[in-house]
Design a protein that fits this description.
alpha+beta; Helix Hairpins; 3 domains; two-stranded antiparallel ribbon
């Protein structure tokens, strides 16, 4: 509330400053016009061009003064206006460039205060548009690559299955690979659609109140086959906490983070899962003792399609963590990561408790 009030005061202050500047501008033009026209009139009186000043000739002199003042004021206004409006002409030309798709255009920031602020805002806008365009191009490039890889794999193994010389074991192996790749495509398509939907959403509807610890336990049970396959030990410490959020979207958070912990944990390793309250937040931490990440990888893990571990690119699509981050943004929560290469990774999630 205080920030809004301060913003209104700042806007009012800028309006007052602009108004005072305009009044001062008009006053200066008027003053200069009067001084110059008075000087010209005095000179013309002295050289005899104008009749000597007398009461009956005063209206003629006054009309002459007004006409000269009007002419000089108009000329000064045109010259000054051209100087002040020059940045606006640059801005109009730059706007046409942006409309044509050139987002690298920038305008100069020298000029009157308000026009300068407009130019700065315009440059910020073009920088953001250029960033969005780059993300769009990267997205199209990445998505075509991510879909192409499993499709090529499916086609290759399907052709092999047509050979009559294959053993039953080979056929079984190839069919398993095809099923795995089709499931990967399905997950990728589902995640892309969900992420696209969430990016155009400002608020998640259908909030419900439930126990967060129970939801996390259910997510752990869903991943039981993966946990048992790698013989992973679970270290669970969940404090019962009631929370009010969209339950379905929250479930995506736990599934994605737990799947990552399973994927990057060595066989026979351990995964730690804890939930505890802290102030107005429920804090969930999910840690593993896997390969870990260096600082460079940590900078990019929430980018779409980014996969830091190239040896495991076939196990994911690089959409899980961006999806988690977007859901948390809609929940007004946040996520942080702590990781050491070779020692493991810990994701810490902060969810506001609203009951």
């Amino acid at each position: 509330m205080t920030d809004k009030h301060q913003a209104k005061k700042n806007v009012a202050k800028r309006k007052l400053t602009t108004l005072l500047f305009l009044v001062l501008f008009v006053f200066v033009i008027l003053l200069i016009s009067i001084v110059i026209s008075g000087g010209i009139s005095y000179l013309l009186l002295n050289i005899g061009v104008l009749p000597p000043l007398a009461e009956r000739r005063f209206p003629i002199i006054l009309i002459f003064l007004l006409l000269v003042s009007l002419l000089i004021g108009t000329l000064l206004t045109i010259i000054a206006g051209d100087h002040f409006l020059y940045p606006l002409r640059d801005l109009v030309a730059a706007t046409k460039e942006v409309a044509a798709g050139n987002f690298d255009i920038k305008v100069g920031t020298s000029g009157p205060h308000e026009i300068n602020r407009l130019a700065v805002s315009f440059n910020e806008m073009t920088t953001e548009l250029a960033s969005i365009e780059k993300l769009r191009n990267d997205f199209l490039s990445n998505i075509s690559h991510e879909f192409k890889t499993p499709i090529v794999s499916i086609r290759g193994f399907a052709r092999r299955l047509k050979k009559s010389t294959l053993t039953d074991k080979q056929r079984e192996e190839y069919l398993d690979i095809i099923i795995e790749e089709t499931e990967r495509l399905t997950r990728m398509s589902r995640n892309i659609m969900l992420l696209s939907k969430l990016e155009s959403t400002e608020r998640l509807p259908e909030e419900s109140t439930y126990f967060l610890d129970e939801q996390i336990r259910k997510a752990i049970l869903l991943l039981k086959p993966q946990l048992e396959k790698k013989q992973l030990e679970l270290q669970i410490d969940l404090v019962p906490i009631q929370i009010t959020i969209n339950e379905e979207m929250a479930n995506h958070i736990w599934i994605n983070l737990l799947e990552n912990a399973c994927k990057f944990s060595p066989e026979g390793g351990a995964i730690g899962i804890s939930l505890k309250p802290k102030g107005e937040y429920a804090i969930v931490s999910i840690s593993d003792k896997g390969v870990g990440m260096d600082a460079e990888v940590q900078k990019h893990i929430f980018e779409k399609f980014y996969q830091g571990d190239n040896s495991r690119v076939t196990e994911g699509s690089g959409l899980g963590l961006p999806l988690v981050k977007r859901i948390l943004q809609l929940f007004e929560g946040k996520i942080s990561v702590e990781s050491i290469p070779g020692e493991g990774t810990c994701f810490i999630i902060y969810l506001p408790i609203k009951v």
